[in-house]
Design a protein that fits this description.
Blueprint: E1 2-6, H1 11-22, E2 26-30, E3 41-42, E4 50-52, E5 71-74, H2 88-108, E6 114-120, E7 128-131, E8 135-137, H3 144-148, E9 163-166, H4 179-197, E10 202-208, E11 210-212, H5 225-234, E12 240-242, E13 248-249, E14 251-253, H6 254-266, E15 273-277, E16 283-284, H7 285-292, E17 301-304, H8 319-325, H9 333-342, E18 348-350
Parallel strand pairs: 1-2, 1-5, 2-4, 5-6, 6-10, 10-15, 11-14, 12-17
Antiparallel strand pairs: 3-18, 7-8, 7-9, 13-16
Helix pairs in contact: 1-6, 2-4
Length: 354
């Protein structure tokens, strides 16, 4: 099969390329090596894949790329929370604009294969909560007054009582609470609109939970928390854990995420719609900081505080992905974190192509 992987030089994309190449598929990567994420060409790229160092928003790139392509795996995106709201235009341009340009190119070329879209658990906002009296409820955004007072748990919106977090299924309500989250939901909606007008194409949106593993980007405003903690330990500093560290997430290893993509691209039966890509087992942010701590390293520094737009708990139900994709995460938290503690993060081996 001939596959295009956008963002295939990135953290997750490069692992998807590896598995596709191992399965003898022909892979074309389209990646512009965004300077916010890359200093140049990263190490660890497959020597077998073909690399087109162009921006997915460039309409001229697709004429040379899409001929004979049977599937597209769209990973290209600007990730993380960024620096502040001043990043909004770049996020919308790269994520939503990039997806729109790709879909326009697929439309123009009457593409009839599968499209797998990288989405994120951030589209849910806060996770799923249950009140002992009122059942499943929808808490609103946490207030600044509560956060300043270190009241981090969202209360029941009906009685103010204690809530119990539960795994989030794919049909949970969607409530993006920052710019990045809004762009990921928009990407999903664009993909869904495309699928409705092009029934010969199957669009699968994979909602990644907290992905970690080798080749993570280093300590930047666009890196994930696992990379930031790992970089702190590498420099001899204690990682700073916000709130009380008890925020629950689902940490899923990057090779498992790559495998979910390959299943969506290659299974005998296509699987439309959204899927959680997760381990199915929640851990706290503090659990992760402790698991990454090297022997003799400093203890994590639980500093309180918060970031506006952050949510308290979100972890996933893995049932739908298991039943319809055949995806089950294989790498357990403890072993995955041990590997990450010493695994190479992103390294640059060559300047950005001109």
């Amino acid at each position: 099969m001939k596959v295009v992987v956008t963002g295939g030089a990135g953290f997750i994309g490069s692992h998807i390329v590896d598995e596709l190449v191992e399965r003898s598929h022909e892979v074309i990567v389209v990646d512009d090596l965004d300077p916010a994420a890359h200093d140049g060409v990263p190490a660890g790229l497959s020597p077998v894949a073909r690399y087109v160092w162009r921006d997915v928003r460039d309409p001229d790139v697709w004429a040379d790329v899409l001929g004979g392509v049977e599937s597209v795996c769209h990973q290209a995106a600007k990730v993380g929370l960024g620096v502040d709201f001043a990043d909004v235009a770049d996020y919308v341009s790269r994520n939503d604009g990039g997806t729109a340009c790709l879909l326009r190119a697929l439309h123009d070329r009457q593409f009839a294969g599968r499209l797998v879209l990288a989405s994120s658990m951030v589209v849910y906002g806060e996770g799923r909560y249950r009140c002992a009296e009122h059942g499943v409820v929808r808490p609103g955004p946490r207030t600044i007054d509560d956060l300043d007072a270190r009241r981090y748990e969202p209360p029941c919106p009906l009685c103010g009582g204690v809530l119990e977090p539960e795994p989030v299924p794919e049909d949970h309500r969607l409530d993006p609470r920052n710019v990045y989250a809004a762009t990921k939901l928009s990407q999903e909606m664009l993909g869904a609109a495309y699928a409705r007008e092009h029934p010969v194409t199957t669009v699968t949106a994979l909602r990644y939970h907290n992905v970690y593993g080798p080749r993570m980007p280093r300590d930047t405003p666009y890196a994930g928390v696992a990379s930031i903690f790992r970089s702190s330990y590498a420099s001899g500093r204690a990682p700073r854990v916000l709130e009380d560290g008890l925020q629950l997430r689902d940490f899923v290893q990057v090779r498992d995420v790559a495998h979910a993509n390959v299943l969506a691209l290659t299974n005998d039966e296509p699987a439309p719609g959204p899927f959680n890509v997760c381990s199915g087992t929640p851990h706290s942010i503090l659990d992760m900081a402790l698991a990454l701590r090297p022997p003799g390293g400093p203890a994590p520094d639980v500093v309180g505080g918060y970031r506006l737009g952050d949510i308290r708990h979100v972890f996933a139900s893995s049932q739908r992905a298991a039943e319809q994709l055949g995806f089950r995460a294989a790498i357990e938290f403890e072993g995955g974190m041990r590997e990450l503690a010493s695994a190479p993060l992103r390294e640059t081996i060559a300047p950005r192509p001109t």
